[in-house]
Design goal:
alpha+beta, HU Protein, Chain A, two-stranded antiparallel ribbon
């Protein structure tokens, strides 16, 4: 099952008692801070959760799936996530 943004908002509302409108603002603000930080090329480290990192992918050969033609793919940036040891242990029930 996928956890959605609205489910996070409802969970904050249920667990802390913050009104849903304020919970939505908090979640939106947090996500905007993370997006802005990643867009600037900086990593985002959330203690006991993990690190979002911006990685550079160099130009590489690819293939157009529709035509099968070879092509060069432009260099680009991607976001990766590496979970913390605490999160990994929790997922693995250690």
């Amino acid at each position: 099952m996928t956890l959605t943004k609205i489910q996070i908002v409802e969970s904050i509302h249920d667990q802390i008692g913050i009104p849903k409108k304020k919970s939505t603002e908090i979640v939106e603000t947090l996500l905007e801070i993370i997006k802005r930080t990643l867009a600037s090329g900086e990593d985002v480290l959330i203690s006991n959760f993990g690190r979002f990192c911006v990685k550079e992918k160099s130009e590489r050969k690819g293939r157009n799936p529709a035509t099968g033609d070879d092509m060069m793919l432009e260099p680009r940036k991607i976001v990766t996530f590496k979970c913390s040891g605490n999160l990994r242990d929790r997922i693995n029930h250690i």
